[in-house]
Structures are given as C-alpha cells and as structure tokens.
Amino acid sequence: MSNTSTFPSWAEKPVAAAVPFRRSSLVLAIAGAVMVAGAPAYAADDKVVSELKAEVERLKKALEKSEKALAAQVGAVPAQPAAGEPVSEPVSEPPAAVQSEESTKIAKGEEGDEPKALGEVVVRTSRGLVKKHDIPTSSSVITGQELEQTGAYTLADFTKRSANLSRDTGNPRTFSLAIRGIGKKGITEAQDPSVGTSIDGISFGYNSLATWDQVDVESVEVNRGPQGTYGGKNTSLGSVQINSRTPSFTSGGRYAMRFGILDTFYGDLSYGGPVIDNTLAWRGTFFVHKNAGVYQNDYDLRGRTYIDTNKIAGRVQFLYTPTDDITARLRVEVAPRTAENFNGLNLFHPEPATYSDGVAWNLANSSGNRLRRGWFQQIKNYGLNNFYNYHTGTQNNDQQLALETGMHGVTGDVNWKLGTHTLTSITGWKDFYFDARNDEGTPYDVSLQGGGDVKYAQFTQELKLSSEKGGFVDYVTGLYYIKTRTDVGGKNGYGSDAGYWFASGSPSTTNTFLDPVTGTTQPVWSGTYGTLAGSATATAQDRYLLGDSLNGLRKYSLQRIRNESPAVFGTANWHLTDQLTLTTGLRVTREDRRTNGYSVVTDDGYAGVLNPTGVVGGQDAQIASGFDSVNVANNTTTYLVNNKIATQAQWVEAGSIAANRKSGAYYLNGAKQVVGTDVSAATAITSQGLKADPSKNIAFVATGTSANNGLTTDAADYAAALDQANKAALKYYGVSTWAGLNNTQRQKIALAQALRKAQIGTLYNTVGAQSFRKTQLTSLLSPSFKINDDHTVYATWQHGEKAGIAQVVSGKSLQAKPEITESYELGWKAYFFDKSLTLNTDVFYTDITDYQQAIQVVDEKQTLLNNDGLIYYQGATLNADRVKAWGIEVDGSYTGIPRTSLRWSGAYTDAWYADFKNSPLAAEQNPGSPLYSAALGGTPFQDLTGKTLPGASKFSFNVGGDYRQPVLDGYEAHTSINYSFQTGYNNDVTLSKYGWVHGYGTADVSIGLGRKDKLFDVSFLARNVLDTQPKAQGSNSGSLLTSPRWYGVVVSGQF
Fold first, then answer.
1. Which residue segment(s) compose the domain that 723 sits in?
2. CA distance linking residue 843 with residue 889, whole number of Å
3. Residue 186 lies in a domain
4. Residue 310 included in any domain
5. Please, what is the Cα angle at 878 between 877 and 883, to 5 degrees?
6. How does DSSP classify residue 447?
7. Buried b (16+ CB within 10 A) or exposed e, 304-327
8. How many structural domains are present in the chain?
9. Which of 139, 416, 890, 1023 has the maximal Cβ count within 10 Å?
C-alpha cells in the first residue's frame, strides 16, 4: 500500500476499480446480498461463499488493468482533511470528499456491464466512522445514500443525523448552526459564523451559501471544536463539510422523482462520464424542487401558501487528468433567483394579562389593541378572531411577498504530485442574493414590503503543500485568503392605514361616541388616535391628517461590510512511537474588518410637508429642511441640578432651590431632552415665532402659555422651516399660515408630526465604523495512543479566535470584541465484534470569552420619540462576557445483523452563560418598574449569568436503521428509518419564559421495492411521520419549529 498522504495515493491501489464487466447471476447475487445501508456482503451458505472467493480472485486480475483509469478518476480533488484530521490518515479507501460514484457503487453492491473488483469490501454506513478512527477529534460522517433513502436534502435534515449539531429555524438569511449547544441563536451578517460550512473544499464566510438543497451528495462531515490549522476558513466552534460526487471516467448517472401531497414534485438528475478517455470527464447535476405549503393566505386570490418550496439549481463539473501527477477540476453552479413564501407565517395570540411583577401588561401598541379601533373594523369579515391564528395557522395579509434568493459559484482546484509532496490550489468565487418583503400580518394597508435584503460575494484562494506519510513526522502547510463583500439593507414602507395603526392610544372603558367611519358606537380613545380619529371631536380634516402622516413614506438603511483575512497554517503529526502520535497545529490569521452605513428616507410619501428637520433623502444626501413642532401640553416639570436635567429624587438629594424646578421642558429639534442633558446654554422660548439662537441648540419651552401650544422651534433655517409649517397648515386645515391656526389645530399637527418622527427614527449620512484589525491565532495540540488496531484514545486542546466586528448602530460606531474559544476533549474510538460495531465517544469542555451574539441595545432616541412607557431597543452584535459548556458525545454503528444496518448518535450538553449581566429584558419583565426604568433609577437590562444558552437542549440523540430483503427474482424490499429527539430548550435570546419549547422527536420512514441492479426503485416516503409540530409560543406570536407531516412516492434509479 502506498504511503502518500493528501494526494489521492489510494488511486495507486484502489478500493474498487471502475472496469468493464459482463452480467452474471453470481454478480446479481452479490448485488442483492450487499445492503445499500452498508452491511457487509452476506452469503446464505458455504457454496455461495466459495463462489464469491473465486469471483474475487478473478476480479483482482481485472482490477490491475484499470488502476490508471481509476487513479485519474478519483484524483480530481485532493483529500481535504477535516479539521483535526491527521495527514497520516489511513488510505485504505478514498476520503469521503472525493470518493467517486463508481467506487461507491462497489460499496453498495451495485452492478453495471461487467463484474467490478471486490478485492476490498467497504462497509458503507460505518465508512465515515472507520475513516475517522485514528483522528484525535470528535467528528461524524453521514453518507449521501443515507440522506437519499429518507429524502434528506437540507442542513436541517443533516442536524437530525449527527450528534450535537442543531440549526436555528428561519429563512436563509437568519440561518445559523450550533455545535455543543452554542451558536444557534443570534447570528448576524456582521460576524463570522461560529460553526462554518463548506462545499467541495470551499469554505464560506456566510453560511447562507449552504442553505440550498444539497443533491448528489457523497458525504457530510461534522467536525467539532475550533478549526483552521489544516486550511480553509477558521471557525471557533466547528464545521460542516458537504462533499458532492465527482466526475468519473465511466458513464452513468442517477435519477429521482418525488410525488406527494401538497402538489409536490422533486426531480433530481445526475449524469456524467468521459469526454476524452482517461483525460477529461464531466458530471452534471440538476434539480427542481416544488411543493405547496400547509397554511393558506386568505387574502391572496392566487392561493399563496406557507411554507412552500420553489427551488431550481444546476451544477456541472469537469475533471482533467493530463498526466499521472496532475489532476484538475472545474465546478460551475447556478441557482437562479426563485421566490418562496417562507416569511409571513405568523401565529398570533393575545398578550399575557400581566408582567411577572403583577402589573398590567402595556397593551398600548399591541396589534390586538389596534385592531379594536373603529378604523380597523371596516373589513366586515376580518377581526380579532381571524387575527389570532395561533391554532389554525391561516394567514390574511396583503403585502407579504415571496422571499427571493439566488446564488452562483465557480470553483477550480489543481493537484500536482511533486515526488514525496503534493501541491494543491483551490480557488473559488461565490455570491448570494436575498430579498424579503414583509407585512404586519393583516389585510390592511399598513406595511409596504418592509424587510431586509442582502448582497454577498466572496473570493477564496488556498495553496497547500502536503508531505508524504511515514517516518518521524508528516505535515501539511499552506496559505489561505478570503475576501468578502456584504451589503445588508433594511426597508421600511408605510401604507394608507399606517397612521391609524401606529398612532398611540387606548380605549376608554366608560366613554363612547358615534364613530362616523363605522357608523357604530365605539369607545373613546386616548392619545394621538383619540385626538385625530377616535373621539367625537375628531374631524374629517383630522382623519385626513392622520392617514396622510405616514402614507407612502419609505426608509432605507444600509451597512457595507468589507472583510479580508489572509492566513498561514500548518499541522504536523509527530510519530513518537508506533502507538503514540502527537499532532500539533498553528494558524495565524490577519483580520481586517471595515464597515460603513447610512439611513435615509427614500420617499416622503404624501406628507413631506410634515418632515422634521434632519430628514435625509437619498444615499449620502445632505440634511433637508423641515420644521419641528412641539406639543406644549405634553410638557412636564423639569428638575435641574448643576444645569443638568435630573430626576426629582436627585434634585431633592442635591438640596436644589425651587428656581431649579421648571414648569416646562427642554427641546432640541423637536425632541424632548432626557435626564443628564446639559442645558446651561439653552434658549428660552416664550412666544410663537421667536427664533432660537442657532448657536444655542437647546430651547426651553414653558408650560401654561397658550400661545406656545404647537409652536415650532430650533430649525436650522428658521425661514425655510416656517415656510414648510405654513404649507402644512394650508394642506390640512385650509389656513395659509401657521400663525393662522388655532392652538388645537397646532397641537394636532404636532401630534401627527411626532408620529412621523417616531417611525422615521434615526437618520444619518454615511458613517464609518471603527475598523477591526488584529492578528489572531488558532492552535491544536493532541496526543493520541493506539492501544491496538481496534482501540485508540486521545486528548485534544484546541484554541480558536473569531474576529471582532465593525458595525454601525443608529449612526454610531459600535465594535464587538473578538471571541476566544478554548476547547478540551478526551476521546475513545473503538471497534468490536470483528469491526461490525463501531463506537466513538468523547467528553468535552468549552470555555468562551467574549461570546458574540445578536443582542439589543437601548435606543434612547426611539424610546424618547415614541414616549409610550416602553423601552425600545436596537439590534446589534455584541459580547456576552463568558460562556461555558461541557458534555458527552457518542457516535456508533452496527452491521452485524444480516441485511441490516444500524447507526446512532447522542449527546448530553450543558451550555450556560458564565457571565452575562447586560442582556435585554425578556417580554414578561415590566420595563416601567423601578428595577428596569432609567427614569426611576433602574437599568433596562437583566442578568442571565448561570442560565442555559438559548437553543441549547440538555440531551439529544438520533437513531437510524436500514433493512433489505431479497424478494421475487432480481428484486429486493427495503426499509429505512431515522428518528431524532431533543429535550426542551428556550428559543428566545432573552430567555423569556414564553420562549420555552418542550422536547420533541421527528421520524422519517421509507419503505420500497427495487431491482437489485438499481435501474428502478419505488418507495413510499413519509417525513415527520408522527406529525410532531412543536411551537415556541412567544409573548404575542409563536413560531413553528418543524414542517408538518408529508408523505408521497419516490421513483429512483441508476443508469
């Protein structure tokens, strides 16, 4: 056996050769006996055993003639060692990343035109575990055939077939992976994934690139712990590597068609073969996946359903082998933009009656409260009974459009064998497109296609040199470079009903009036809605003003994220004795992270005259003119201590004199100033029309002066501001000047403008974030001891560093610190019963400093603008000071029962916040309580130290099995099952009690009949056969965590 390392030296003595062969009854018997699930060849009696031995000897001779062809065939792609995989990995079979379909057929017991060489029988199901037996890290392998047997195409499916791997529910943008309970919730575009993904040797800086259905897969490998010392992109928690089937010099292919409920059609086709014998080969893969969703949108006459599937993609590969020492592969893939109704599945229910402290829940801005307004009773067949759809799932929304995604990619790799070394180059380019257009969940014209959009592209280049295996040391070393470009946009749009929806106000429990909109008696409302629409004093002009205030307004924000990461890496295996090996690895990465962003109004809509000062229009535009009205009736007593706004308690404690207690408030550009503001240079405004001194930005407005009601203040250009205020007066009340309005009319315009300000929020021209530049390390130290051929024990320490984050939040730079991971592992890998039982187990401990996650920071300006008693947060990626986890993992398989294969994996995991004192409040925590209200001396955060991480189950396992039985003449019946279970976990990043999900399990089952030669097979497939539908309840809206039961028929075959 050859001793070469990363270069596919197994081609020199292959496991199975793709050679021409003739049909024979003996080979048919072999094909029927070798289970697709991976059981070893099984003979019914001694006679058959003797025949098999004779056939094997004959095929060995045929094998020698085909070595060159197979070497070219499987040499297209170098063995890509999984992180933690030693370069001295046994080479008795091709690595999963490059094993060809033809060699896979031998393992499956499949046949073609001539008997294939069976000099070495590969046990397919445990092949990955066998392959990983001498590797001193925790890892799992799922074969492509296991996935195909139960219709598993997605990363969500992969998580149900691997130990301690899970993914967050959501769309392709919000997708995230977790290993060992860490990383599942709160991933954003600004940060690197903690659990990385790769396809065919190309690592992704953005995991959304791996969210397409994976077709024609050879294997999926899951590696736990920090990665990067073997090449590829570094990750801090682990990686998932997807390996597709490669071109072959033997013509052949595979087809599969799935038909079933929900108008399902899945069509897969893969085919390839030689273009020039032994020199150029190709393989093409194409699929179309379509099915309707379960939940209907009653608003949509086209019958739109959620969550549907609409995917189409194609891939073509070329393998070039000009010499025995050089192989090259080119891969081009296209997934054109398609639209799926993924977003918009809302499961609404009423809010709780009280907060956890017993205080009544603030329902002022709840959807249920808003739908009780007369304005939203105009659609006679729609009301709260329709809106609260938690148990039915039936949707009714007018503006929720399908989510669009698309992807393209080009990959090229070259392997050049240079004597005892192999030089590998892997080059790749990928892009990704995402666009969501969302709705608030009602048939009213409130939201206009809001949501996020992403344009992502990456370029990667890797050069790697691998030494020959053997001697005292073998190694791999190289250079890696990745450059990414991400544009993340956020859209907000408002329709003709938006003003009535977002206006503040609550219904009276005693007073009523005759509402002219509905012609019925309605409760009198408080707040802006009450003043402008929900009371007897509201006029048609007032309702016009309220409806106009947001109609057609559109806002867009963008973050431009630019990252570069060059690196040098290396790993060496030091063979200290025949049994003891020390693996060491080091990676040095230079991180350069830059971000800038802006937030602008892109369309003023119908009420541009209500724009306040500071509205930004268009990308990088200058500040536009506007005016700021102030509703003096909302002013309250202001307390000053040392010329700074203080609380009453601070004022009393300071012993301030009465002169420092003012009946009024301080304003800056129409925004009321908060505690702590220095007002020593403020201008006092005592009459309408008095221009504030431009050099003194803050103005004091006194309470109780009728002339001051609805005044305008602090405009950068007072004349322009007054001109706009005059136009507003004319448009909404038919009065040519602001001064001509009465006090009540001024107050009403002030209310409408305050509503508009609150929805516009913070605007800013392009702001650059503080760059993150740092040299970071990844390291590996792992002694392993091979007790004998069947038992290996190891200890591993892995160190990983994830880059810090440059980001813009509300117009300000906010940098997240780098995440540092220390991972420790003790493992044992064993065979029993003549290798029919494979068992791998490990104990791990992970310690993370400055764990990055999406959290929320208090948005002081938005809280001030809304002024409704609630605390408003702005999403950002920051750090939890410390996270820890420990647990036990088990992977195993058993093939000792005739025609049967069993596999299983499981984990116990305890992952918790060791130090996290600044988490946002959970929904049930009263933001107005003294504990959390800043105005009352509290802090708007909670301490989650000691609490289990969101999304982390304590216990999870999956078990699968396959059985095949020869029937009739040339046919066999088969069945496959996969069951996955996890205990309960909290699905909310704030660990709200309403985010709890009870433990659940899902099962996929397939029963079928097929020809032994694999030309035709028909199966009945049921996915989630138990119809398990766990939900995360949420405080007002739940989320579904699994797809409902599906069943249908799959027709497949190979040719």
1. 617-758
2. 7
3. no
4. no
5. 120
6. B
7. bbbbbbbbbbbbbbbbbbeeeeeb
8. 1
9. 139
